[in-house]
Amino acid sequence: MNLKAVVFDLDGVITDTAELHYRAWQRLADEEGLPFNRKINERLRGVSRRDSLLVILAGQDETEERIQEMMARKNGYYGVMLDKVTPDYLLPGALELMDDLDEARVPYAIASASKNARTVCELLGIADRLAALVDGYSVKRQKPNPDLFRYAAAKINCPPDQCLVVEDAAAGIAAAIAAGMPALAIGPADRFEGLIGRKDRIARRDDLRHLTLAELQQMGVEDETWVVAQEEFKAASQRHMETVFTIGNGYFASRGSLEEGYPGDHPLSLAHGIFDDVPVSFSELVNLPAWQELELRVDEQPFRLDKGHILHFRRYLNLYQGILRREVRWQSPNGMIVDLSFERFASYAEEHGAGLRVLVTAVNRPCTISLHTGINGHVANDDLLHWHLLDQGQVETGVVWLHSRTRQTSIELAAAAKVESSMETTAVGQQCPGQPSISVGCQLDEGQTLAIDKVVGFTASRDSIPDAADVVDRALQIVHAQSYDELRRAQQEKWAQLWQDCDVIIEGDDEAQLAVRFNLFQLLIAAPQNDDRVSIGAKTLSGLGYRGHVFWDTEIFILPFFIHTKPELARNMLLYRYHTLPGARQKAADNGYEGAQYAWESAATGEEVTPTWVPHFSDRTKMVRIWTGDIQIHISADIAYAIIQYWRTTGDDDFMRDYGVEMILDTARFWASRAELEEGNGQRLYAYRDVIGPDEYHDHIDNNSFTNYLSRWHLQTGMELLEWLKTNHPAKARQLIADLQITDVALSHWLDVIEHTIFLYDAESGLIDQFENFFDLQHVSPEFIAQASRSLQVIFGIEGANERQVLKQADVIMLLCLFHDQFDRRTWQKNWDVYMPKTDHNHGSSLGPSFHAWAACEMERPAEAYEHFMLAALADLRDPRGNARDGIHGASAGGVWQALAFGFAGLHLTEEGYTVEPRLPAHWRRLAFKYYWHGKLQEVDIQAP
Ligand code: BGC
């Protein structure tokens, strides 16, 4: 951060009049017979005179008259002592620091709650050098409210977030945080407990002694490994940044669009499970009524970034806290300057709740402010309307609600909002149909701040809440239950807890560290906390890409992170697959197979929702047939793979008994019936023809090695599990055998398929053919592939890519990773050498790079691994594919964790548990993370030698 100015508190920072205050209070307390000592005095730091007295009175009832008299008496004692103040009362280091600031032309101000601040500054001899002096008369709301510091920042004409507060009181530090200002806390660490260390921009020191300007500059800098920041607003990248600044809590998420709107923006909030029907894609998540929108007028001029002038802009997502913030200094077209802060979060502690805080400070002259916000039901998915607006209302001034229902799926949703203002404002409820809202208006004097807090509640008829009261009542309960500050505090606590188990520490590479945390954050906000009928879609809840549908991305890429760090959430998402078994059974039956065949794209029910035709990516007059829903069959085995990984890591036998076995056995039935027996030349073989493997540049292929290997493994695993069930839970085994018709004949067929499924592996060279006749396709030079500026499918066309040896992602390499113990070194080497140069690393699938990084680690090529790793880690932050605007690449984010854990740390599951085999990039000094193994938290901490 570029530090432009400093605001000092007075007492305890610049001078020691704190001691004089103490003595004055002591005298008053003694006269009144009230207990008082230095410990109680600690609580008076940064607190106004009146509040200090209330602390000393400790609840003792007094008339207003007596309170006034006591305050005056104390002030009298203080005034007498004050006369003795001279420049000698400046605390060590204060004068030197001011000299340095003067020399560097950094303006500074005093901001004190004391009404005697001016007199004290004059006596200290510093009044004339201050850029501003603000005191107890300046604002109404004292610390910990943000008003005083923002007032000071306005007076020295500095955007609050570029202005450092130096404060010795906890209340003052809280005020700085609320004001969006960096701070230096002066005093012992325990005084600021619970405030410092939460990744706010707060440094601490015992005093100002020997503090250099360079150190001071550093104090405005936050822990960059926890904060994703945008320093300049660019309209061209706004949709990308909306994705990056998505916030959420596992129930719903909202993209980071600007509260006031901007031409071409794409505001969107999605909640798990709230799907509605749609042409072509069958089913899509529905854009929720907008809660973060507002209309702000400054002297009648609407605030928008495309109007007036942006004098300062900074937006940042504090990943540690799950809080998104924006600081803007804006000049309206008629010259009025305001400092604006927007803060919002989706509460992880109360998943039905969210908060939005807006601060408006008048900088250069008084102005009128009007702010209009509520719940806007007039939202659509692109241009498709999904809501029937049922009813709306206002409960009391400041609280409104909207009740709506999806048009086809009849899911009811209630959204409620409570708006509170810091000033005597005129709040008026507005009842435009479908858009209940509240208007707040006030007059701001120069330097004054209006703070608006909005608490929002969302509840839906599909929520699994035991007491299924009316959705509207429940939404209203949410907004009534907590204040913005309470919700915010709980948010910070919850996220601190989450990170305790889920964080991955990388030392020696801040860019990678931040990118990793960003990816994990995006996964955490997408994972359902309390709902096992939903799962994470390919684009999480952050965009309309893939319409919220769930792919294999979840099981193979995303789930391992949760299995190892939040197994209860992984369980929820595996149960989603259990609940969607009826859809999978239907799909198998529709296709003429036995058992259950999972949908390639799945939504609420598990029926196949992959669109069959979509417009051609470059020629909109043509349609492209999408075959993945028909023939990309490996998903059923991918789900089985995740179930086994979950079971082996958690030891959750109950889950396996009640759900896991059934899913694996019924999908095994599908594999057994899908295999085609081919006999001839004395051979008896099973083939899987006409499929698509993970590499989607090739469709209608035969015997894709990834698919065939997984099918064989799946059937084998099914047989072993059945034995386990028979031994440990015979009744359940009997029931499943009967329900799924797993006869002896069926089992001997499974065995036959296991033994005779084609796997195109050349034992001599170790080469695994990606699929039958892959090497007969046209060769493309590795240089051409490496230098391609667009996707090879765009360059060659869909058919052209099909005819060439170019890969969207290397599926043989993926196979080696998933079953790495099963393949020898020669096989690894051979396939690495063959497939990596054929792969479209830059423009192919975003799912590839994380696994390529993992594979490179297995090949002991950490430098190469690092390159692939960063491609994955920056897939959304840097947007190399140019499609992050559609939503977060969830699979890539999940793969990042696997590349770290399984790749760089070499965490490998064995019969006894895990082993670690580190192979860090040369510049990493440390890689540390935690994971659960059979319910016990384990720590991996690798320090470079
Ligand atoms: C990838 C698939 C992936 C899907 C959703 C496609 O581009 O090739 O593997 O499942 O995107 O992320």
Short précis:
This protein is α+β, with helices and mostly antiparallel strands and 945 residues long.
Strand content: 15-25%
Count of extended strands: 34
Morphology: elongated
Quick check: average pLDDT? 95
How would you characterize the largest beta sheet?
A: 9 strands, antiparallel
Rg on CA atoms, Å: 32 Å
The strands making up the biggest β-sheet line up spatially as: 7-15-16-17-18-25-22-21-20
The number of helices is: 29
Q: Segments where pLDDT lies below 50 for 5+ residues?
A: none
Identify every distinct bound molecule in the structure, by name, code or SMILES. Answer: beta-D-glucopyranose
Structural class: alpha+beta
Q: Separation of termini?
A: 33 Å
Fraction of residues in helix: 25-40%
What would you note in describing this structure?
The protein is an alpha+beta fold. It is about 35% helix and about 20% strand. The protein contains 29 helices and 34 strands. It is elongated and about 110 Å long. The mean pLDDT is about 95. Beta-D-glucopyranose binds near residues 553, 808 and 845.
Q: Any chance you could write out the topology, listing elements then pairs?
A:
Blueprint: E1 5-8, H1 17-32, H2 38-42, H3 49-57, H4 64-82, H5 94-103, E2 108-111, H6 117-124, E3 132-134, H7 147-155, E4 163-167, H8 170-179, E5 183-186, E6 202-205, H9 213-219, E7 227-230, H10 238-244, E8 247-248, E9 252-254, E10 269-271, E11 275-278, E12 282-285, E13 294-298, E14 301-302, E15 309-318, E16 323-331, E17 337-346, E18 353-362, E19 367-374, E20 387-396, E21 399-406, E22 412-421, E23 426-432, E24 435-444, E25 449-460, H11 471-481, H12 484-502, E26 504-507, H13 510-524, H14 552-565, H15 567-579, H16 581-590, E27 613-615, E28 623-625, H17 628-631, H18 635-650, H19 653-674, E29 676-680, E30 683-687, H20 705-728, H21 730-739, H22 744-756, H23 782-787, H24 792-802, H25 811-818, H26 825-835, H27 848-858, H28 862-873, H29 890-904, E31 908-909, E32 914-915, E33 926-933, E34 936-943
Parallel strand pairs: 1-2, 1-4, 2-3, 4-5, 5-6
Antiparallel strand pairs: 7-15, 8-9, 9-10, 11-12, 13-14, 13-19, 15-16, 16-17, 17-18, 18-25, 19-24, 20-21, 21-22, 22-25, 23-24, 26-33, 27-28, 29-30, 31-32, 33-34
This protein binds beta-D-glucopyranose.
